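Problem 12. The chain below contains 85 residues. Write out its predicted structure in token notation.
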Amino acid sequence: MRHKEVINVKDGMRLGNVCDLEIDTETAKVMSLVIYGRLRFFGLLGREDDIVIRWQDIQVIGEDTILVNYNALCRTKGPPRGLAA
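Solution.
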């Protein structure tokens, strides 16, 4: 699932590629997909916020694309990269 392109079905916008998954360690179920924020000015100004997409918002998982029903109000920074549990 990693590196698949994610498209929002609400507006057809390309959100990015799946970079990470959040998994519930008790049930071993995927809780959400994480798309790392884009670089700002070649990375000198940091990154935009990460996009976290809840599992229930996924509409279709295709061979190389994932279609989601994404609401921009759910946007979050999330844990620092490399420090996720």
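Discussion. The first strand starts at residue 5 and ends at 8. Students who got a different answer should revisit the alignment rule from Section 12.3.
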